[in-house]
Write a structure and sequence with these properties.
Number of helices: 8
Distance between the termini: 59 Å
Strand content: 5-15%
Order of helices and strands: EHEEHHHHEEHEEEHH
Helix content: 40-55%
Strand order of the largest sheet: 4-5-6-7-8
Shape: globular
Radius of gyration: 21 Å
Amino acid sequence: MTILCYGSSWEGFLTAVFDAYNKQASICRSADAASLFPSERVTPDPIKAGRVERGMARLAKDLAETIYMAWLSEREGVEDDLLALLRLSFGQNRDIRGDMRNPVVTAVTKAARQTGWERQRMLQFVRFVQTPEGIYIADIEPNSNVLALIGNHFHGRFNDQRLLIRDLRRRLILVSQQGGWFIREMGNDEKLPPLPKDGLFEDLWRGYFHAVSNPARQNLKLQQKFVPLRYREHLTEFQNVNR
């Protein structure tokens, strides 16, 4: 068994799939490379990645989208599940996603759905704070890596503003400004200043949230279903500020 470590890019992952297809190999991100088995570092290769993408497109137009969404989930072992699904699909020359009896298909489908749900929640739960410099910044810590999936939404809605969405878990920043948006990695020594929590707009939002709530109809279990606890650290309406 050989462990192929591809870094963290989509192109690197597809290159690893190409290299692992005809050998007994497992795929992992470089950060998870610790193993008793020998490991090889995979260098992203656009030619190899392109061949895998064309192969997926030949089987089904939306297969690559499912694979991409599942990959973004970053669930433990998802790379090997994706490799197994692609091996079966290419080997049988058909899209096997309809066979829900296959545990690999089930695992990949769940991972893709997780990313889809996480994307929807980020569209609802991102809370921006205006800095003295006039920049709007929001912090998130999603389970799936969804920055690339929400960039068009926020840039389209606020294309005349400069926005930063900071993924604290992955140390990635989505930068949106006039003319477009992009994602960059934070430097190893780059420190993120904490966001202010007691501005005028934050107070107004908390006041609105309190005004529309009805204590007589409070249902904490239902509330946690729609607004899970893990998101609330970065939601203005759930922050208690002592002034």
